[in-house]
Design goal:
Length: 245
Protein backbone atom coordinates (compact mmCIF):
# COMPACT_ATOMS: atom_id res chain seq x y z
CA UNK A 1 0.00 0.00 0.00
CA UNK A 2 1.47 3.34 -1.05
CA UNK A 3 1.38 5.82 1.81
CA UNK A 4 2.28 8.93 -0.17
CA UNK A 5 1.45 10.26 -3.59
CA UNK A 6 2.88 8.39 -6.57
CA UNK A 7 5.54 11.01 -7.26
CA UNK A 8 7.35 9.76 -4.13
CA UNK A 9 6.99 6.04 -4.83
CA UNK A 10 10.70 5.72 -5.63
CA UNK A 11 11.93 8.35 -3.17
CA UNK A 12 14.04 5.88 -1.18
CA UNK A 13 15.40 3.73 -4.01
CA UNK A 14 18.90 2.52 -3.13
CA UNK A 15 18.41 3.12 0.59
CA UNK A 16 18.38 0.51 3.34
CA UNK A 17 15.86 0.71 6.18
CA UNK A 18 16.18 -1.40 9.33
CA UNK A 19 12.96 -1.90 11.30
CA UNK A 20 12.86 -3.62 14.68
CA UNK A 21 9.72 -5.42 15.81
CA UNK A 22 8.85 -5.76 12.13
CA UNK A 23 6.96 -9.04 12.19
CA UNK A 24 3.50 -7.62 12.85
CA UNK A 25 1.45 -4.56 13.71
CA UNK A 26 3.09 -1.17 13.42
CA UNK A 27 6.49 -2.60 12.51
CA UNK A 28 5.16 -4.64 9.60
CA UNK A 29 3.17 -1.65 8.33
CA UNK A 30 6.26 0.57 8.50
CA UNK A 31 8.37 -2.01 6.67
CA UNK A 32 5.78 -2.21 3.91
CA UNK A 33 5.55 1.56 3.65
CA UNK A 34 9.31 2.02 3.35
CA UNK A 35 9.49 -0.75 0.74
CA UNK A 36 6.71 1.02 -1.20
CA UNK A 37 8.94 4.08 -1.25
CA UNK A 38 11.75 2.04 -2.81
CA UNK A 39 13.93 1.13 0.17
CA UNK A 40 15.21 -2.32 0.95
CA UNK A 41 13.38 -3.14 4.19
CA UNK A 42 15.39 -5.16 6.70
CA UNK A 43 12.92 -6.80 9.04
CA UNK A 44 14.26 -7.51 12.53
CA UNK A 45 12.54 -9.30 15.37
CA UNK A 46 12.56 -12.40 17.53
CA UNK A 47 9.96 -14.52 15.71
CA UNK A 48 11.31 -15.78 12.41
CA UNK A 49 7.96 -17.02 11.09
CA UNK A 50 6.31 -13.62 11.56
CA UNK A 51 9.24 -11.86 9.91
CA UNK A 52 9.17 -14.23 6.95
CA UNK A 53 5.44 -13.69 6.50
CA UNK A 54 5.79 -9.88 6.59
CA UNK A 55 8.73 -9.99 4.17
CA UNK A 56 6.80 -12.25 1.80
CA UNK A 57 3.93 -9.75 1.74
CA UNK A 58 6.36 -6.98 0.81
CA UNK A 59 8.02 -9.00 -1.94
CA UNK A 60 4.66 -10.15 -3.35
CA UNK A 61 3.85 -6.45 -3.77
CA UNK A 62 7.10 -5.90 -5.69
CA UNK A 63 9.18 -4.52 -2.82
CA UNK A 64 12.58 -5.53 -1.49
CA UNK A 65 12.87 -7.14 1.92
CA UNK A 66 15.39 -9.10 3.94
CA UNK A 67 14.90 -10.88 7.26
CA UNK A 68 17.47 -10.55 10.04
CA UNK A 69 16.31 -12.19 13.29
CA UNK A 70 17.33 -10.08 16.27
CA UNK A 71 16.53 -9.72 19.98
CA UNK A 72 16.85 -6.05 20.94
CA UNK A 73 17.38 -6.94 24.60
CA UNK A 74 20.71 -8.57 23.68
CA UNK A 75 23.59 -6.31 22.64
CA UNK A 76 25.33 -9.28 21.04
CA UNK A 77 22.25 -10.02 18.94
CA UNK A 78 21.84 -6.40 17.82
CA UNK A 79 25.54 -6.02 17.02
CA UNK A 80 25.34 -9.23 15.00
CA UNK A 81 22.41 -7.85 13.03
CA UNK A 82 24.30 -4.63 12.31
CA UNK A 83 27.34 -6.58 11.08
CA UNK A 84 25.12 -8.68 8.83
CA UNK A 85 23.45 -5.61 7.35
CA UNK A 86 26.79 -3.93 6.74
CA UNK A 87 28.32 -7.02 5.12
CA UNK A 88 25.32 -7.83 2.90
CA UNK A 89 23.96 -4.38 2.06
CA UNK A 90 26.86 -2.06 2.88
CA UNK A 91 24.83 0.71 4.48
CA UNK A 92 21.91 1.75 6.64
CA UNK A 93 20.00 4.92 5.84
CA UNK A 94 16.98 4.56 8.12
CA UNK A 95 16.72 2.93 11.53
CA UNK A 96 13.23 2.50 12.96
CA UNK A 97 13.23 1.51 16.63
CA UNK A 98 9.76 0.03 16.91
CA UNK A 99 10.20 -3.12 19.01
CA UNK A 100 8.32 -2.82 22.27
CA UNK A 101 6.16 -4.60 24.79
CA UNK A 102 3.31 -3.46 27.00
CA UNK A 103 2.83 -3.77 30.72
CA UNK A 104 -0.60 -2.83 31.97
CA UNK A 105 -3.16 -3.76 34.56
CA UNK A 106 -1.53 -3.31 37.97
CA UNK A 107 -0.02 -0.51 40.03
CA UNK A 108 3.72 -0.15 40.22
CA UNK A 109 4.01 -1.41 43.80
CA UNK A 110 2.55 -4.74 42.66
CA UNK A 111 4.75 -5.09 39.56
CA UNK A 112 7.37 -7.85 39.90
CA UNK A 113 10.96 -6.69 39.35
CA UNK A 114 11.42 -9.09 36.43
CA UNK A 115 8.43 -7.52 34.66
CA UNK A 116 9.95 -4.05 35.19
CA UNK A 117 13.24 -5.28 33.74
CA UNK A 118 11.55 -6.85 30.72
CA UNK A 119 9.63 -3.67 29.87
CA UNK A 120 12.55 -1.28 30.31
CA UNK A 121 15.05 -3.61 28.64
CA UNK A 122 12.88 -3.94 25.53
CA UNK A 123 11.41 -0.46 25.21
CA UNK A 124 14.39 1.65 26.24
CA UNK A 125 17.62 -0.31 26.51
CA UNK A 126 16.84 -1.99 23.19
CA UNK A 127 16.80 1.41 21.48
CA UNK A 128 20.17 2.23 23.04
CA UNK A 129 21.58 -1.07 21.76
CA UNK A 130 20.24 -0.41 18.24
CA UNK A 131 21.59 3.15 18.07
CA UNK A 132 24.94 2.02 19.47
CA UNK A 133 25.16 -0.71 16.81
CA UNK A 134 23.79 1.05 13.71
CA UNK A 135 24.63 4.76 14.18
CA UNK A 136 28.37 4.31 13.44
CA UNK A 137 27.48 3.32 9.85
CA UNK A 138 25.44 6.49 9.49
CA UNK A 139 28.21 8.59 11.03
CA UNK A 140 30.72 7.24 8.53
CA UNK A 141 28.30 8.05 5.70
CA UNK A 142 27.39 11.44 7.21
CA UNK A 143 23.76 10.68 6.50
CA UNK A 144 20.83 8.88 8.06
CA UNK A 145 17.53 9.07 9.87
CA UNK A 146 16.63 7.37 13.16
CA UNK A 147 12.95 7.21 14.08
CA UNK A 148 11.88 5.98 17.51
CA UNK A 149 8.31 4.78 17.97
CA UNK A 150 7.17 6.05 21.35
CA UNK A 151 3.63 6.62 22.61
CA UNK A 152 1.27 9.35 23.76
CA UNK A 153 1.90 7.67 27.11
CA UNK A 154 5.32 9.30 26.95
CA UNK A 155 3.49 12.60 27.42
CA UNK A 156 0.73 11.68 29.86
CA UNK A 157 0.32 9.67 33.06
CA UNK A 158 -0.75 6.04 32.76
CA UNK A 159 -2.14 4.59 35.99
CA UNK A 160 -1.51 0.84 36.24
CA UNK A 161 1.08 1.13 33.50
CA UNK A 162 3.83 3.14 35.17
CA UNK A 163 6.71 0.99 33.92
CA UNK A 164 5.51 1.28 30.33
CA UNK A 165 5.03 5.02 30.76
CA UNK A 166 8.52 5.34 32.25
CA UNK A 167 10.01 3.54 29.26
CA UNK A 168 8.28 5.90 26.82
CA UNK A 169 9.04 9.09 28.77
CA UNK A 170 12.64 7.88 28.82
CA UNK A 171 12.56 7.13 25.11
CA UNK A 172 11.39 10.65 24.35
CA UNK A 173 14.23 12.16 26.38
CA UNK A 174 16.72 9.82 24.74
CA UNK A 175 15.44 10.81 21.29
CA UNK A 176 15.72 14.56 21.84
CA UNK A 177 19.22 14.20 23.31
CA UNK A 178 20.56 11.86 20.64
CA UNK A 179 19.17 14.21 17.99
CA UNK A 180 21.48 16.92 19.30
CA UNK A 181 24.44 14.52 19.44
CA UNK A 182 24.02 13.43 15.82
CA UNK A 183 22.95 16.63 14.08
CA UNK A 184 26.58 17.51 13.40
CA UNK A 185 26.89 14.26 11.44
CA UNK A 186 23.89 15.15 9.25
CA UNK A 187 21.81 12.45 10.95
CA UNK A 188 18.21 13.23 11.85
CA UNK A 189 16.50 11.73 14.91
CA UNK A 190 12.73 11.83 15.27
CA UNK A 191 10.16 10.36 17.63
CA UNK A 192 6.55 9.42 16.88
CA UNK A 193 4.06 9.33 19.77
CA UNK A 194 0.86 7.59 18.66
CA UNK A 195 -2.32 7.52 20.69
CA UNK A 196 -4.52 4.43 20.96
CA UNK A 197 -3.56 2.13 18.10
CA UNK A 198 -5.32 -1.04 17.04
CA UNK A 199 -2.62 -3.64 17.70
CA UNK A 200 -2.31 -6.57 20.09
CA UNK A 201 0.19 -4.71 22.31
CA UNK A 202 -2.53 -4.06 24.88
CA UNK A 203 -6.18 -5.11 25.22
CA UNK A 204 -7.71 -1.60 24.79
CA UNK A 205 -10.73 -2.68 26.84
CA UNK A 206 -13.88 -0.75 26.03
CA UNK A 207 -12.44 1.03 22.98
CA UNK A 208 -13.83 0.85 19.46
CA UNK A 209 -11.10 -0.57 17.18
CA UNK A 210 -12.64 1.19 14.18
CA UNK A 211 -12.05 4.58 15.81
CA UNK A 212 -8.51 3.81 16.93
CA UNK A 213 -5.40 4.59 14.96
CA UNK A 214 -4.36 1.78 12.64
CA UNK A 215 -0.76 0.61 12.10
CA UNK A 216 -0.89 2.14 8.63
CA UNK A 217 -1.53 5.57 10.17
CA UNK A 218 1.75 5.38 12.06
CA UNK A 219 3.50 4.14 8.91
CA UNK A 220 2.12 7.12 6.97
CA UNK A 221 3.48 9.57 9.55
CA UNK A 222 6.88 7.91 9.34
CA UNK A 223 6.82 8.06 5.54
CA UNK A 224 6.33 11.81 5.77
CA UNK A 225 9.40 12.07 8.01
CA UNK A 226 11.76 10.15 5.76
CA UNK A 227 10.71 12.04 2.63
CA UNK A 228 11.47 15.48 4.05
CA UNK A 229 13.99 17.72 2.35
CA UNK A 230 17.45 17.11 3.81
CA UNK A 231 17.87 20.59 5.29
CA UNK A 232 15.11 20.06 7.88
CA UNK A 233 13.56 17.47 10.11
CA UNK A 234 10.52 17.10 12.32
CA UNK A 235 11.79 16.08 15.73
CA UNK A 236 8.44 14.87 17.07
CA UNK A 237 5.03 13.77 15.84
CA UNK A 238 2.08 13.35 18.18
CA UNK A 239 -0.52 11.25 16.40
CA UNK A 240 -4.10 11.00 17.63
CA UNK A 241 -7.27 9.34 16.32
CA UNK A 242 -9.80 11.79 14.93
CA UNK A 243 -12.54 10.46 17.19
CA UNK A 244 -11.93 9.30 20.73
CA UNK A 245 -12.29 5.52 20.66
Amino acid sequence: MNTLSNDKTHFLVGQVAVITGAGRGIGAAIAGSLADLGATAVLCGRTRAALDSAAETIMDAGGKAEVVPCDVTSLESVEGAAKRVESSLGRVDILVNNAGIGGFGRPLHQLPPDAWDQILNTNLRGVYFAIRSFAPMMIRARSGHIINISSITGKNPLPNGAAYAASKWGLNGLSYSVAEELRGHSIRVSVICPGSTNTDLSPHAGKDPAKMLQPEDVAHALAMLVTQSPQSFVSEIILRPTQKP
